[in-house]
Amino acid sequence: MDYDIKDKALADSGRLRIEWAGQQMPVLKAIRSRFEKEQPLKGTRISACLHVTTETALLIQTLKSGGADVAICASNPLSTQDEVAASLVVNDNISVFAVKGEDDKRYYQHINAAIDRKPNITMDDGADVVSTLHDKRQDALPNVIGGTEETTTGVIRLKSMARDNVLKFPIIAVNDANTKHFFDNRYGTGQSTLDGIIRATNRLLAGSTFVVAGYGWCGRGLAMRAQGAGAKVVVTEIDPLKAIEAAMDGFDVMPMAEAARHGDIFCTVTGNKHVLRKEHFDVMKDGAIISNSGHFNVEINIGDLKKMAKSEREMRPFVQEYALPDGRRLYLLAEGRLVNLAAAEGHPSCVMDMSFANQALSAEYIVKNYKDLKKTVYSVPQEIDEKIASMKLDAMKIAIDKLTEEQRRYLASWQEGT
Ligand code: ADE
After folding, report:
1. Of 7, 10, 229, 274, whose CB neighbour count within 10 A is largest?
2. In whole angstroms, what is the distance from residue 405 CA to residue 387 CA?
3. How far is the centre of ligand 1, averaged over its atoms, from the C-alpha of 351 (Å)?
4. Does domain 187-342 have CATH number 1.10.10.10?
5. Per-residue pLDDT tens for 286-332?
6. What is the DSSP letter of 270?
7. Where in the chain is the domain with CATH 3.40.50.720?
8. 51 close to ligand 1 (CB < 6 Angstrom)
9. CA 52 to ligand 1: nearest atom
C-alpha cells in the first residue's frame, strides 16, 4: 500500500477523534452495518478526494466495510487533519495522500496518486479528480463507471462539463440532496465558519459588523449564526431574489463597495472570483478581518492585497497581517482558503452524517445502476434522500404525524374545496 501523510505516530490520537465523531453519525453507522452484511461495493475501486477529517474517515470505513477498495487524497491543501490521515493508514489500511499545508504541486501529485489507483468510482469535493481525469489523465477514464460530487462549486463545474458535452461518465450531485444542503451547507457552514474565525482571531463578535458575501445556503447559515453571536450582519448579493430574502430575514443588504467601509469581519461564501478586491481593500477599516468559506481560494484577490501592502507578517497561526502605506492593517485568515476547515475542524459530525450517508448510498446506487445512466449530472434519487431523512429523524428520537386516510384522499382529490 502506498501513502503520503505527515506522521504515522499520530494514529492513536486520530483513532480516538474518529471514535468521538462516530458517536454523532448514527445514519452512517446503520448503513455501515448493512454494507458489512450485503457487500454492495465488493471489488469496486473508489478514489475519494475529500477533506480528510474525522467524519470523512467514518465514510471511508463505511465504503471499505461495503467491500470497496478505497484510496483518498485531500480536496484542499489546508483541510487535512494529520492525525486522521495517520489513523486511516495505520488502523484501517487505507492509502491516504494528504498532508496539512501541502503546496499546490504536492496537492496535484496526491490527486494523481489517487487516480493511479484506476478508480471505478470517483468521489469528489470540488471536482478536482474529475477535471484532472478529463484533462490530463484520460488513461484512467475507461475504468470509471460514475462519480459523486459533494459541494456546490463542484456541481457547478460538472454541470458546465455536461452542458459542453465533455463529461465522460455519470455524476451524482450529492450536494443537491435536501438532506445535504439544507443542513450541511446551512447549519454546518454557519457554525464551523464562526468557529474557524474565532479560533484564528479570538475576536468578540458581539457589537461587530460582520459582512457575509453571498446568500446561498452557506451564506444564510453564516448570517444567522453571526447574528446569534451578537454581530450586526450585512449581506451582499448579486441575485435580486436572494437579496430580498436577506432583507426580509432582517439583515442589512448593500453593495460590497459600501459594506467594505463598515465591516469589522468579512467572509465570502459566493463560489465566485475576486469578490473582495483592491477597490474594497482601499476603503476597509484598520484591523479589518478578511476570510473565505467558499470552496476555492479565489474569492479574495490576494494578489491585490500583496501589491498594496508595504509589509506582511504572520501575527498568529492562520492570521496574516498586510500593512498598507497609509497605516491601516488588514488581516487575511487561512490564506483565503476555507476558514472553517483550515482554522477549525469543518462541519460538526451531526450534519456530516447525512451528507456522507448520501455519498455511501450514491456509490451503491452507481454500482447497481451505472449501465442505465447517461454521461450527465444526476440528483440523488428522491427515495435515497427521503430514506436518509427518516433514518436521521429516528436517530434523533423525534416522532412525527402520519396522514390519516381522510387526509390522504383530500390531498389526492381536486373536487373538494371549502
Ligand atoms: N466539509 C465541511 N466540513 C467537513 C467535514 N467535517 N468533513 C468533511 N468535509 C467537510
Report:
1. 10
2. 22
3. 9
4. no
5. 999 999 999 999 999 999 999 999 999 999 999 999 999 999 999 99
6. S
7. 187-342
8. yes
9. 8
